[in-house]
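Retro notes, structure queue

What went well: the backlog is down to a handful. What didn't: a couple of records were mislabeled last round, so from now on we paste the full input next to the output in the thread. Example, using Methylenetetrahydrofolate--tRNA-(uracil-5-)-methyltransferase TrmFO from Puniceibacterium antarcticum:
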Amino acid sequence: MAGSEAAWQAANRGIPVVIHEMRPKVKTFAHKTENLGEMVCSNSFRSDDSEQNAVGLLHWEMRTAGGLIINTAHEHRLPAGGALAVDRDAFAATVTERLKSHPNIRISFEEINELPFDGQWIIATGPLTSEGLGRAIQAETGTEALAFFDAIAPILYADSIDMSKAWMQSRYDKGETEEEQRAYLNCPMDKDTYEAFIDALLAAEKTEFHEGETAGYFDGCLPIEVMAERGRETLRHGPMKPVGLTNPHQPDIKAHAVVQLRRDNALGTLFNIVGFQTKMKYGAQKDVLRLIPGLENAQFARLGGIHRNTFLNSPTLLDHQMRLKSKPNIRFAGQITGVEGYVESAAMGLLAGRLATAELLGMDLPQVPQDSAHGALVHHITGGAEAKTFQPMNVNFGLFRPLDGVKGGRRGRVTRYKGYTDRAKEAWTTWLDTQTLDANAAE
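Corresponding output:
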C-alpha cells in the first residue's frame, strides 16, 4: 500500500520512479498473488465518514491529494454499511496495472538486502520486511527490531452458508441504500452455543512461536482466541456483540452473540468473518468455526493465519520528514514506521512520496500540518509518541490537538469531531495548495 502510493505521488509530479518488488521471486507467508497493493488481512478500509471519524477524514485527505489507493478502493467498493470495503482481487489488479502503465514508473522484481548509500529511497516493506533487509536496517539503527504478531481472518464460500439460520443486515440498518443496510451476513448464538464456542476456542490447538519469540499483539488486530483468554465475555462485547441486529428467523428472540461476515468480492461468492483473526491451526479452525450457527458446513477459500510484523522505533530513528536520521537519503513509509492499518500505511506512503519529490525538486515545503489527519499521524510516529513504550497506532482523534472552546466528554463528541475534521480539511488543502504554488515557481 505505502510503496504503491509513494510511487504514484512522485511519478505524477514528473519524477522517474523505480519500484523494487521481491515478489514473486521471493514469497511471503501472507501474500497469495503477485499483485502490488494486495490486501492480506481484511478487505476493509474502515469508516468512510469524513466528518465524525478520523479514518474517514484520512480517506478524504487522500482523495483530495489524488491518492491512488483510496480512489481505486472507491472504484471497487462493496456494500459494507458505513465502511469502505472492496473486492480485494480487482482492487489489487487495478493498482498494479496503473503503476505498470505509468510512463514515469519502472518495476524491478528483485530483493533488496542492503541499505543504499546514494539516491532517494523510500523503504515501504510493510509488515513483512525480508530477513536480509531487516538485518541491514537493524545493523544501521543499532537497535533490536521491535515486533508484534498480526493475525489474518478466514474467508469462506458464500454458497456454503446456511441462510435458514443466517440473515443479511448492517448493524442498526446503517447505510443510505438497501444494499448498504444489508451489507453484513449475521450468524446468531444463544447463550449455550456461545459458551460451547468459547470452550472450543480456548481448547483449540494454536500456532506455537519459535524459541525466543514473544507475542506482542496489536490491540486492534487481536486473534479471537487471545480475546477469549482475556475473559469469556470479551468477544461478546467485541466482534460478536449482538446490538443493533434483529434476526428475521426469530424476531422475538434476542441473540446472546452474533458473528458477522462481510462480502469479500464483487460477485458476492466470498465472505470474510469480521474481526475473526486467528492463530488456531488449520484443522482446529475448521472444527471451531463450524460450531457457529449457519456455518456448520462452511467451506473455506482461505484459513486464518499469523505472521510476524516488524516496525521501527520511529520516534528515535526518523526525522519529521520520515527520513532515517543516520541516512537521510532513505525514507520509511507504511506499517514499518509504526502505523497500523491499510489506510494509515497508504497515507504515510503518500506523504513520503510528496516529501521526497519536494526535496528532489528543490522545494521548501512547510511541515505537514499537525491539525490534519496525515499530520497528526506522522507527528505521532516521528516524535509525538513516547519512544520507550512506542507501539503501532491507528489514526484517531486522540492524536489531534485540542480545540479551543469545545466541550469535552461524550456529550460534546459530535461537535468536537466535526470541529476536528473541519479544521483538518482546511489545514490539509492549504498545505496541498503550497505545493502547487511551489511547483509552478519551480517551472
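Agreed that this is the format going forward. Reviewer comment attached to the example: The first helix runs from residue 2 to 11.
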